[in-house]
């Protein structure tokens, strides 16, 4: 059996101009990065945004992830290919991979098998340099803060809250003491406010305004100090100007795909850039986009943050699950997942049912389930999941796109396309004017099934210091992706658990407050056996071991 990278390297890719041609774009609309990758020029993006959106928006999400894997990105790509094969004009909208997971636990993030975006190695490693630009803009602001303090501190900086970032897992950088005896630390780039702003800004002018609104410190007089007080926003935008143009690539099935931005969903809001989504909505009849991790994180943030700020509303959601992952939620350990276990599966299917109910009841969003097929799945196991899902009035399709590409998801594509044509009254979970703690409580109780929310002494102090600044802002919950709770060890659908908020961070430019819960880290560490140990380069310069 070929590995993901071997499948990708064996593929014959179309020139990127030909891919653009499927969208009605010409070579003049592109800034090429080699033969198979390009950015849409800013003039092209501006021209398209002046046109009305025409696409139906399909949101792909999942159950809580497990070590067994679910295949959300693979399903997004397979569904896009299937829609195009079935005669629908579809375009995928995805996030760019972060180097942290590539070299850490997860590996690459370009799909798998015969449902991948390519060129796989380029996309997973550096791509068009967007993340490096975001890192540079973030750290320019940090340098300007230190420089201002060094040259006299005319703005009377007291509590500096701005942190540095880098796109790599390095736990040693979580907490640092600088030469001037101030305390700071690094976040991973995909958890930074600059990344969030990059992905939520509507255009370059909005990007500049949002960057200027970043609160970097509080003065000795108790007044907030902004990036605009250092006149930083113009230079930061200059660093981000090229990166802000969406990236165009293709799938193995020949479908166009826009990959742009990459905030983590367990820490940040987990959606590709709004600019890319809005552009895609004017280039295709169906746009398939992905929200990171399980629906309790990615889908909730897609709706309550990205949709709240943009006015976008998805027409249908696809929830991805696997028999293996549901058995894991039912208590089976990874080594035993290939053995049929109907009792564990019957228990674990509750996790899928919770996510279905959440999206239907709390957001009014129609749902279709994609059961990503593994060869060890038995007919009895598939039938059990099918019956449980259909008992909720929801369609389920067994999908084989990993092995068959788009052909393995044609039935899913037809159902999703038909459902997207039906009117849906999609709503948000909480009102803008609800107090911050009430928003948190609403998310915790409705989405996670928590009994209550508690705030640490630090979080209570931070909430008090924010005062009116938090009014009207959304909440971005940072918690483990592996559980509906903030305890990664609690599988399936835990009951009567407490969401413990350890810290609150104000992200004025992004338009939300980050609630850091449990033991989640904004700078992850590498596992004992990182994926980097498998990666190398052969004598012909081809990358090996990337997954």
Would you write up a description of this structure?
The protein is of the alpha/beta class. The chain folds into three domains: 18-128 and 243-420, P-loop containing nucleotide triphosphate hydrolases (Rossmann fold, 3-Layer(aba) Sandwich), CATH 3.40.50; 133-236, Domain 2, N(10)-formyltetrahydrofolate synthetase; 436-517, Roll (Formyltetrahydrofolate synthetase, domain 3), CATH 3.10.410.10. The chain contains 19 helices and 25 strands. Strands 1, 2, 3, 4, 5, 6, 14, 15, 16, 17, 18 and 19 form a twelve-stranded mixed β-sheet that branches. α4 (72-85) packs across α17 (410-420). The two termini are 14 Å apart.
Residue fraction in strands? 15-25%
* Main sheet overview: 12 strands, mixed
Q: What is the helix tally?
A: 19
CATH architecture of the largest domain: 3-Layer(aba) Sandwich
CATH topology of the largest domain: Rossmann fold
Main CATH class of the largest domain = Alpha Beta
Which structural class should the secondary elements be placed in? alpha/beta
Shape descriptor reads globular
CATH H-tier superfamily of the largest domain: P-loop containing nucleotide triphosphate hydrolases
Low-confidence stretches: none
Domain module count: 3
Distance between the termini: 14 Å
Rg from Cα: 22 Å
Q: Tell me the helix content.
A: 25-40%
Mean pLDDT over the residues:
96
Say how many strands there are.
25
Family: Belongs to the formate--tetrahydrofolate ligase family.
Protein name: Formate--tetrahydrofolate ligase
Pathway: One-carbon metabolism; tetrahydrofolate interconversion
Organism: Methylophilus medardicus
């Amino acid at each position: 059996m070929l590995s993901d990278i071997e499948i990708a390297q064996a593929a014959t890719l179309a020139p990127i101009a030909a891919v653009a041609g499927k969208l009605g774009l010409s070579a003049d609309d592109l800034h090429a990065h080699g033969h198979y990758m390009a950015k849409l020029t800013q003039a092209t993006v501006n021209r398209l945004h002046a046109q009305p959106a025409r696409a139906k928006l399909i949101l792909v999400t999942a159950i809580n992830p497990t070590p067994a894997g679910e295949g959300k990105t693979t399903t997004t790509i397979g569904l896009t290919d299937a829609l195009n094969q079935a005669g629908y004009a579809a375009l995928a909208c995805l996030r760019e991979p972060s180097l942290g997971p590539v070299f850490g636990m997860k590996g690459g993030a370009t799909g798998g098998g015969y449902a991948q975006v390519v060129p796989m190695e380029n996309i997973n490693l550096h791509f068009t340099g967007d993340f490096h630009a975001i890192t540079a803009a973030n750290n320019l602001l940090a340098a300007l803060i230190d420089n201002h303090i060094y040259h006299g501190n005319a703005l009377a900086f007291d509590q500096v809250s701005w942190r540095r970032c880098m796109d790599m897992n390095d736990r040693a950088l979580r907490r640092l003491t600088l030469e001037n005896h101030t305390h700071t630390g690094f976040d991973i780039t995909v958890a930074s406010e600059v990344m969030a702003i990059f992905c939520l800004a509507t255009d370059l002018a909005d990007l500049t305004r949002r960057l200027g609104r970043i609160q970097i410190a509080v003065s000795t007089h108790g007044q907030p100090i902004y990036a605009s007080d250092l006149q930083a926003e113009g230079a930061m935008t200059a660093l981000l100007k090229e990166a802000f143009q969406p990236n165009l690539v293709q799938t193995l099935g020949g479908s166009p795909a826009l990959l742009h931005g990459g905030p983590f969903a367990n820490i940040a809001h987990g959606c590709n850039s709004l600019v890319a989504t809005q552009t895609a909505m004017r280039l295709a009849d169906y746009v398939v986009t992905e929200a990171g991790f399980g629906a309790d994180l990615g889908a909730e943030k897609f709706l309550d943050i990205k949709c709240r700020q943009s006015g976008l509303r998805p027409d249908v959601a696809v929830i991805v699950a696997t028999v293996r992952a549901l058995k894991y939620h039912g208590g089976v350990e990874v080594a035993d997942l290939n053995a049929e276990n109907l009792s564990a599966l019957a228990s674990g299917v509750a996790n899928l049912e919770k996510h279905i109910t959440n999206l239907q009841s709390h957001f009014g969003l129609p749902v279709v389930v994609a059961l990503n097929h593994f060869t060890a799945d038995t007919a009895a196991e598939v039938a059990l999941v099918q019956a449980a899902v259909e008992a909720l009035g929801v369609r389920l399709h067994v999908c084989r796109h990993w092995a068959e590409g788009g052909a393995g998801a044609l039935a899913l594509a037809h159902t999703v396309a038909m459902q997207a044509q039906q009117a849906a009254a999609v709503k948000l979970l909480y009102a803008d004017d609800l107090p911050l703690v009430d928003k948190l409580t609403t998310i915790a109780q409705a989405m996670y099934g928590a009994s209550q929310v508690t705030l640490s002494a630090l979080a209570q102090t931070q909430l008090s210091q924010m005062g009116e600044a938090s009014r009207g802002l959304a909440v971005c919950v940072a918690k483990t992706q592996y559980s509906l709770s903030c305890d990664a060890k609690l599988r399936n659908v835990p009951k009567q658990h407490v969401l413990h908020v350890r810290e609150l961070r104000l992200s004025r430019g992004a338009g939300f407050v980050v609630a850091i819960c449990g033991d989640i880290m904004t700078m992850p560490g590498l596992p004992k056996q990182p994926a980097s140990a498998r990666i190398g380069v052969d004598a012909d310069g081809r990358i090996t071991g990337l997954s």
